[in-house]
Amino acid sequence: MAWEWVAPVAAGVSGSVGVFFTWLAGSQGRKHAERMVDQSQAAEHRARLQKERHDAYFAAMRVVDLDIRRVRYKQEEMLGALAQIEQYWTKSKRVEMYTEAEIALYAYGSEEVRGFAEAWRVAVEGEDLAAMQELADRFRSQMRAELQEG
What we know:
Elements: H1 6-75, H2 79-88, H3 91-108, H4 111-125, H5 129-149
Helix pairs in contact: 1-2, 1-3, 1-5, 4-5
């Protein structure tokens, strides 16, 4: 009779240990699931920002290309080509396109690209084709570096 208590105590202890490890496994599983959700949300956020930056940079490149062609055609007196561009890309369309690209650059672009936008405005106003082409090359390099790293 002295040993009758061993079996119920052993069963109770093993049951308690089982309950503890079941709780521990569940707790760790919940924490792991929370970490995975957080990581997934962060990855989605980074991907969305990268897509916005990509779209902003390509909108700016369209503006850059159009401005360079317009100034080059004007300086080389290619009036037919200039007229075609200005017929399709009216002043109001160009202003709208420029404004949208600038807003996107300021919202999603890097500091370097924001600096590019300021320098670009000055070069376009002065119709300085050499400066425009040099800025366009620098912007393409910066754009390539930023979009490939992200």
